[in-house]
Design a protein that fits this description.
301 residues; TIM Barrel; 14% strand; globular; binds zinc ion
Length: 301
């Protein structure tokens, strides 16, 4: 099963592939089990910030753990956010990470040049796309500002939504996709990341809304599958309408991480108990929230 084809098929059927972040290695097993038991399809993914600031160790360690439990036809391994400029505004040797991910067997990659000016973002994305395509895999890119990873207070959510702060601009998106050649585009349309800086990471995310009309307009302009980051805590109706309008991959991090961490805390560090809690949370997300039970059968038709 190839990531590019899977996401394309999802889009054709107005469905969506969730991508679950695993900032703790022991999250990999229950996430995969939940996907298989729902007879669904999902990605397991890891971002650089998660092995740096949580306990996933490295992209290679996540790939190793994934290899132990993966199930062909149900799961895919994706490399999430490799920033060019990171959340602490440091330069990152992004190509080195992307090359390591190719060697470790990742089936798709993301390069995040969203903190750069448009021209620069196009240039670095093109470079990443070339590497990914040579390896025969998909490359996701981001345009617009999905806030929340930075180590500072965010403006109140309603203010972000009302002012359209950081929203992806349609003309820029059209040009960006044409020139960079990326496979999927992560957009800012009302979604926000869960905060990960030490001081904020246990906070409940504000309930986000999506500008569904804007999603539709962006999708019509770029004609490739759109990706929604910050998929935790978005109003369900907005998610379902967003999927119909062009979202074909949705990243889910905060909700699962906080579920797992809370269970660990309550159980005095009991990993198997936390894994069990996470397993049920992922099943509920797939079944009740995305209506993705039996997606595997639907996409193979
Ligand atoms: Zn993200």
């Amino acid at each position: 099963m190839k990531a590019e084809e899977t996401v394309r098929k999802a889009r054709e059927q107005e469905a969506c592939i969730p991508a679950f972040n695993v900032p703790y290695l022991s999250m990999v097993k229950p996430v995969i089990q939940a996907v298989v038991d729902e007879n669904s399809i999902a990605m397991v993914q890891i971002a650089r910030v998660e092995w740096e600031k949580f306990e996933a160790e490295s992209l290679e360690r996540v790939a190793e753990e994934y290899e132990k439990y993966k199930k062909e036809g149900y799961t895919l391994l994706h490399l999430d956010h490799i920033p060019v400029i990171d959340e602490d505004y440091q330069q990152v040797d992004y190509m080195a990470f992307l090359e390591r991910a190719v060697r470790a067997g990742y089936q798709s990659l993301m390069v995040d040049g969203s903190r750069l000016p448009l021209e620069e973002n196009i240039r670095v994305t093109k470079e990443a796309v070339r590497l990914a395509h040579e390896a025969g895999i998909a490359c996701e890119a981001e345009l617009g500002a999905v806030m929340g990873h930075e180590n500072r207070e965010m403006p109140p959510y309603e203010e972000i939504f009302a002012s359209r702060t950081g929203f992806t601009k349609t003309e820029e998106a059209e040009r960006f996709v044409k020139e960079s050649g990326c496979s999927w585009l992560s957009v800012a349309v009302g979604n926000v990341h869960g905060q990960i800086a030490e001081a904020f990471r246990d906070r409940k995310k504000p309930q986000a809304r999506l500008d569904v009309e804007h999603i539709r307009e962006l999708h019509q302009a770029v004609q490739i599958p759109l990706v929604l980051h910050g998929g935790s805590g978005v109003r369900q109706q907005d998610i379902l309408e967003g999927i119909a309008a062009g979202i074909a991959k949705i990243n889910v991090g905060t909700e699962l991480r906080q579920t797992y961490e809370a269970a660990l805390k309550e159980g005095d560090g009991d990993v198997s108990c936390a894994q069990d809690r996470l397993y049920h949370r992922v099943r509920a997300y797939i079944a009740d929230y995305l209506h993705n039970t039996d997606l595997k059968d639907r996409l193979s038709q």
